[in-house]
Description:
The structure is a homodimer of 269-residue chains. Chain A has 269 residues and is of the alpha/beta class. The first copy, chain A, has one domain: Alpha-Beta Barrel (TIM Barrel). In chain A, 42% of the residues lie in helices and 14% in strands. In chain A, β4, α6 and β5 form a beta-alpha-beta unit. The radius of gyration of chain A is 18 Å and the shape is globular. Chains A and B meet through α3, α4, β3, α5 and α6 of A and α3, α4, β3, α5 and α6 of B.
Amino acid sequence: MNFKEKIISRIKEKGSAVCVGLDVEPGKLPEILKNEKDPVLKFNKEIIEATKEFTAAYKPNLAFYEQFGTKGFGYFEKTLEYIGGEALKIADAKRGDIGNTSKKYAQAFFETFDCDAITLSPYMGEDSVTPFLDREDKGVFILALTSNKGSYDFQMQKMADGRFLYEFVIEKINSWNIKKNCGMVVGATHPQMFEGIRKLAPDLPYLIPGIGAQGGDLENTVKYGFVKNDVLALVNSSRGIIFASNGPDFAERAAEEAKKLRDQINNFI
Amino acid sequence: MNFKEKIISRIKEKGSAVCVGLDVEPGKLPEILKNEKDPVLKFNKEIIEATKEFTAAYKPNLAFYEQFGTKGFGYFEKTLEYIGGEALKIADAKRGDIGNTSKKYAQAFFETFDCDAITLSPYMGEDSVTPFLDREDKGVFILALTSNKGSYDFQMQKMADGRFLYEFVIEKINSWNIKKNCGMVVGATHPQMFEGIRKLAPDLPYLIPGIGAQGGDLENTVKYGFVKNDVLALVNSSRGIIFASNGPDFAERAAEEAKKLRDQINNFI
């Protein structure tokens, strides 16, 4: 099964296009976990158990693990174990380097850590991406149009042919998608661009951040970002779900928020 | 001391603009280390000890550590310890994410791992870079024009105003350089661009990969990339130095290659 089919079938099976961002911050952990041996791990474990019913994918962002140094990579590894086969495992790592180096990153995330997908930055071009495309069952989400303010600095600058840089990037992603294992990142904070983007990339799965804390527009994201027959997009929420409460009910509240997002998306479809 | 001053003084003090890339590959380690408890660590330790006299900076690329999983971050941490205060420690990580996430990466590399500098990818724009610029003594090298073939895919595409994308990126880097802690990555495989690039960024330190295995042009790199009064560039070589020999003389041969590169650069200055 190629990565595109894997996403579609996982979303169907779960009845959910929700991706939960596991961006753990030590300062925001519930009081009740403070005396645990490893509050971070206990937190992730409880969040995953509570939300897995409503969730097609989990997306730990590596920054939140690297902040702890070597120990943090242990947290990352263990967190992937907790997810197990329950949902897709997306390493939000935004890597990308020259060919022989990207090959090592691919080995790290697809073999050593056994993630299903990774996010990549496109700036270094084709040979920084292709080492991640060997296996049809492992996918990449390449940054196209991100959810942050900085997306205006380069991505939304016009090229000589009149297109935006991100449109140029999307064209390249299409050309790299031979094994149906490419996807792209498009932020929900740009809903006015979604209709045009879907026309440029009818075949690519989206990973959509920017819902929740970043203030993205869910209705238009779903209306224009999703494709009609197969749901070909994962909508990520991190802080809005995992830090819904920092009381003893943190896991239940996270589950409620994940369920709510799932239902909102399904209503808009 | 700001990062720019730190680079200049370190290069002066060492009489060398050499940066050694510590991109360790298990398959290329010398036979003689095979029975060591940790061949990777032993290798890095010996390479650092042998080359430190000729070296202004070391640049471990994170991919080569992440390939080992959690254990690899232990290698990275230990390798930084071996370098100690002998040379600048540059984390070649090519990170970059939305503001609150970049902040965590900055914490990871500047506080937890205590590196002097990190490489960043610019694609996500200003708020993905500024969290790394808080401390004037810690620097960033932002990808401008990289050494690989993929640099033609986006970096060397023309923008609406007639400039290349990388020129546009350089203009932004200049505007972020308020605390004199920004630098940029320019590949030695584009020596014909160096004269123009130095005019665009007279004040920015360069990190220059592409010498050695990638076939860059050292003479023109130094002629056009370096500035006259202060040496404001680090020339990186990875494989060409650390894997000069895989025999029992691997450390001596690495030292010879580092010394040779130092002398070649100094002759061209």
